[in-house]
């Protein structure tokens, strides 16, 4: 079993003797990067130095550094230990209010700093494993939009009922399995619901996903990670002989680039060209968008609207939680939307995730009765697309 690398500590202390004593005492247990000023520590963190914790002396500006670090959203949970000449209730209270993880004497005669650091790291690991609630916020649907949804979908379901029954029969005759496919989706305000579709894939489609990874239309060229021990290094770090941006995640040490590549492998909007998982009738249903007709029921129930941003699978929605990306969930979820009528059906397979996201954000911020009418009118010619996706 490979030995776990020592914790990486950014350390600043303006007293040369105290600095030397700390490195001498704990250098064999910790990977210490001593720096001369708190500004250097802050800059190192801004440059994504993979620190497991920061130890800073109050005499060296540690309290000010603590406040600067806690003001950065992605550094709010980084363990920070402040060292002081004398522990007093006032200093302890000030450090706690500023967000310090702990306070130690500068000579570390009291307490076991290594055990304390290991505790902080383990606490972060356990917290990361805990299930988190999906963020939700209220999205108000205008009365005209809800009235339009009920009127159009109610009428459409009555008119299309013979077609819906015929399609259900064809699906039953074409392949084994349920007629309706239910997929957990995230709609407006991050509300999760079951999206209804006519089944267009074989019942063993999920088992074929791994074998189909090479055909992903949105795959990008990525570096191949070579894992010889418990480390995963990208090619750049392999050339340097060590990891330049190491992360510790779920009991695994790995390069930050490898971590980002793993997340990217689950890229949003994953589709396949000429997908063999699709049934014979399913290909026709997809090309004509008839497979989406059961979503009229979702609209009638209020899960989504006729026009809006497409509700996303859970694994896609969890990636879109930044201040900018989350704006696309501030608008209604819908059957058709702005990006569908902008490029869909024009033979363009190169619409990027960013383009789709920006169109979704544009709709969420600017949707109106007039815009909805234009999208609805443009949707019909876009239904019969030439792309086989």
UniProtKB/TrEMBL annotation:
Protein name according to UniProt: Sugar transferase involved in LPS biosynthesis (Colanic, teichoic acid)
PANTHER family with a match to the protein in the record: COLANIC BIOSYNTHESIS UDP-GLUCOSE LIPID CARRIER TRANSFERASE (PTHR30576), UNDECAPRENYL-PHOSPHATE N-ACETYLGALACTOSAMINYL 1-PHOSPHATE TRANSFERASE-RELATED (PTHR30576:SF0)
Keywords from the named record: Transferase
Sequence similarity: Belongs to the bacterial sugar transferase family.
Extent of the signal sequence: none
One GO MF term attached to the UniProt entry: phosphotransferase activity, for other substituted phosphate groups
Matching Pfam families: Bac_transf
The keyword Transferase is annotated on this UniProt entry: yes
Annotated SMART domains: REC
Gene3D superfamilies: 3.40.50.2300
Annotated source species: Siphonobacter aquaeclarae
Single GO BP term: phosphorelay signal transduction system
Domain Response regulatory: 8-121
Organism superkingdom: Bacteria
């Amino acid at each position: 079993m490979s030995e776990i690398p020592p914790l990486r500590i950014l350390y600043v202390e303006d007293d040369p003797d105290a600095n030397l004593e700390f490195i001498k005492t704990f250098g064999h247990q910790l990977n210490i990067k001593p720096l001369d000023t708190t500004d250097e520590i802050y800059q190192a963190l801004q440059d994504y130095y993979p620190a497991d914790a920061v130890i800073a002396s109050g005499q060296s500006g540690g309290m000010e550094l603590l406040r600067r670090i806690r003001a950065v959203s992605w550094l709010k949970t980084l363990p920070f230990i402040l060292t002081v000449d004398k522990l007093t209730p006032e200093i302890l209270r000030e450090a706690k209010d500023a967000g310090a993880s702990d306070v130690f004497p500068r000579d570390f005669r009291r307490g076991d700093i290594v055990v304390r650091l290991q505790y902080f790291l383990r606490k972060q690991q356990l917290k990361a494993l805990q299930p988190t609630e999906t963020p939700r916020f209220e999205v108000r649907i205008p009365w005209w939009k809800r009235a339009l949804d009920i009127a159009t979908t109610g009428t459409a379901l009555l008119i299309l009922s013979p077609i819906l029954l015929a399609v259900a029969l064809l699906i039953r005759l074409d392949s084994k399995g349920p007629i309706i496919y239910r997929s957990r989706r995230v709609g407006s305000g991050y509300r999760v619901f079951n999206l209804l579709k006519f089944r267009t894939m074989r019942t063993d489609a999920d088992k074929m996903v791994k074998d189909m990874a090479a055909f992903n239309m949105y795959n990008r060229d990525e570096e191949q990670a070579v894992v010889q021990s418990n480390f995963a290094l990208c090619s750049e770090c392999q050339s340097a002989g060590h990891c330049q941006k190491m992360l510790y995640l779920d009991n695994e040490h790995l390069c930050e680039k490898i971590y980002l590549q793993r997340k990217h492998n689950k890229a949003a909007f994953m589709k396949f060209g000429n997908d063999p998982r699709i049934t014979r009738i399913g290909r026709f249903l997809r090309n004509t968008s008839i497979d989406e007709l059961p979503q009229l029921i979702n609209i009638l129930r209020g899960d989504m609207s006729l026009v809006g941003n497409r509700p996303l699978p859970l694994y896609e929605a969890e990636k879109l939680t930044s201040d900018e990306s989350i704006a696309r969930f501030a608008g209604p979820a819908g059957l058709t939307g702005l990006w569908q009528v902008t490029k869909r059906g024009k033979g363009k397979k190169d619409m990027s995730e960013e383009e789709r996201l920006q169109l979704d954000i544009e709709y969420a911020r600017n949707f109106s009765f007039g815009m909805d009418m234009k999208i609805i009118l443009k949707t019909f010619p876009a239904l019969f697309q030439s792309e086989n996706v």
